[in-house]
Amino acid sequence: MALQRDIVIIGAGFAGVWSALAAKRLISLSNKQRDLQVVVIAPEPFLAIRPRLYEADVATMNHPLRDLFDSAGIQFIQATVHNIDTTGNTIQFQSTTGTKASIKYKRLILAAGSQVVRPQTVAGIQKHAFDIDTISAASKLEYHLDRLPTFPPSQSRDTIVICGAGFTGLELATELPKRLGEKSGARIILVEGADEVGPELGPGPRPIIRQALEALGVEVRLGSPVTEIDASGVHLASGEYIETMTAVWTAGMRATPLTQQITGAKDTLGRLQVDQYLRVPTYQQVYATGDAAYALVDTEGHHALMSCQHALVLGRVSGHNAAADLLDESMIVYSQPAYNTCLDLGAFGAVVTSGWAREVKVSGEVGKKVKTYINQKLIYPPNDAKEAINAADPKIASSDELLTEMLITVQ
C-alpha cells in the first residue's frame, strides 16, 4: 500500500528546501500542523551548495538538512524518484538500500533541479570529460587536480581545458590559477563555440571579464566548439587539437528528466511551462519550481533562469501556493522582475551587474566582497527551524533591495 501525504516535494536543492519551509510556514500560520503533512524526497539529506562547486574543498559544500527538517516538522525520505503517475497522483521511488515504494500526494512540487548536458555529438565526452555539476563530480575533478603533480611533466599534464565560457566556465577558469598555485605553471584554456565569452551575460560586463582573463593568464578560443574529447586532448571544429589530461565540460544545462513524465508544454531546456502560481496547467495538483519550471518573472516577457537567485524565490512561492491550495487560502502570483548577477573572477575580483541589460554596478575588490557574502552567507538556509520558517515568507525583499543592502554592508 502506498504512503499518503498532503504535499510531496521531489528534490532538496534550493527550490525544494524553500518549498518545504514555505509550505510549513503557511500550515503553521493556519494552525493546521496536525492536518497537513509535508514530505521531501531526495537522494541525499543535504543541500548541495551548487553555486560554489568551482571552488576548492568541494566536500564541504553541503548543508545538512535532517535536523532542520526534523525540527520544522518536515518528513524527509532519502530516495530517488523514478516514476511520476499524474493520473493516480502517485510517485514511485527507490531508497538507498534498494527498497522500492510509492507515495500518494494531494499536491506535488517538482523541484528536482537540472543537470549538465553532455551532447552525444561530442565524441568521448562521457568517458574523458570532467564536470562540476554535482559534489561528487566536482570532488572527482578536485582529486584529479591534486594528483596532477605526481604525473611526469608534459604539455598534456600542465594544460587544463574548460569547455564552455558561460557563467560556470568563467568562474572555474578564473578560480583555477589560485587553486593550482602560481608555481604550478599550468596553462588554462577556455573554449567557447560562440564568438564572445559569456554570450548569455551580454556586453555590459564583457570588458571586465576579458580584462580578468588576460590578467590571470587564461587563454581563450572563441567561435570553435569542441567536437571530440579523447584521453590525450580536445579536438576543436577549427581543426586545432589541444593536448590535455584535464578537459572540463561546463557547456549547457537541462531540466531534470522527470519533467518528461509530466504531460505539458516545455521549453528547449525541458522545463515545464507553469502558470502564474507555478502550477502545471495540465495538472492542477502539480507544481514545478526551480530549474524544473519555465516561469515568467515579469510583464516584459523574461523567464526565470536556471539560477540560485530565481530558485530561492520560486521555491518559496511554490511551497506557499501548494499549501494555500489545500487550505483554501489566497495564492501568491510569482513575480521577480529585479535581476542581478554576480560573477566571480578569481583573484581579479568579481563583477556585479543589475537588470536584464546587465549594467555593471561594481567590480574588482568590492564585487568580490559581494560575491563572498552571497556564496558564504546569503544562499545558506538558517539552521534554526523557527528562523528558517520565518525566512520562507514568499514576500521577501527583491533582488535590487538585497543588492543595495549588500553594497552598503561591504563598502
Automatic annotation (TrEMBL):
Residues 6-311 form the FAD/NAD(P)-binding domain. Keywords: FAD, Flavoprotein, Oxidoreductase. Its cofactor is FAD. It comes from the Eukaryota. Pfam families: Pyr_redox_2. InterPro entries: FAD/NAD-bd_sf, FAD/NAD-binding_dom, NADH-Q_oxidoreductase. The keyword Aminoacyl-tRNA synthetase does not apply. GO terms for biological process: aerobic electron transport chain. GO terms for molecular function: NAD(P)H dehydrogenase (quinone) activity. Belongs to the NADH dehydrogenase family. This is FAD/NAD(P)-binding domain-containing protein. It comes from Neoarthrinium moseri.
